[in-house]
Amino acid sequence: MSKTILIVDDSASLRQVLSITLRGAGHTVVEACDGDDALSKLDGRKYHLIISDVNMPKLDGIGFVKAAKQLPAYKFTPIVMLTTEASDARKAAGQAAGARAWIVKPFQPETVLNAVAKLILP
After folding, report:
1. Is the pLDDT confidence value at 122 over 80?
2. What residues make up the domain containing 42?
3. pLDDT of residue 120
4. Gyration radius of the chain over CA positions
5. Which of 19, 29, 37, 107 is at a distance of 20 to 30 A from 116, taking alpha carbons?
6. What is the reported pTM?
7. Pairing relation of β-strands 4-8 and 101-104?
């Protein structure tokens, strides 16, 4: 069954790679170019998972996660951070904001698909 996944990253090439990977696994993908753009797409649509970068212009990933978790419709939507940031402090900030998993770039498509499979409930 197809799941809808929101990808939030300011890198168009990264969004493209992720989209191809996720669509190849049968998922529906919605893309956002930064945290502000992503918040505008949290309009009541059902997302089974959100994958967000941390370092973005306008609204960064941690700020986006905090804002998304304030919205009742998305309070329990699992969020994966996909980022070049590998420090424990940043991971702790992501977890405190509500992120469920942390994947460091560069990533292998299988790593993302495994995380998606674990976090999306059937």
Report:
1. no
2. 4-119
3. 87
4. 13
5. 37
6. 0.95
7. unpaired
Instruction: Copy the structure tokens of residue 55.
Output: 């370092």
**Roughly what angle, to the nearest 10 degrees, separates helices 88-97 and 61-70?**
20
From residue 120, give the alpha-carbon distance in Å to each of 5, 76, 80, 99: 10, 11, 11, 14
User: What CA–CA distance (Å, rounded) separates 86 from 101?
Assistant: 12
Sheet strands side by side (includes 4-8): 28-32, 4-8, 49-52, 79-83, 101-104
Q: Tell me, what CATH number does 57's domain have?
A: 3.40.50.2300
Residues 67-107 have pLDDT tens digits of: 999 999 999 999 999 999 889 999 999 999 999 999 999 88
Single-letter residue type at 83: T
Q: How is residue 82 written in tokens?
A: 């996909």
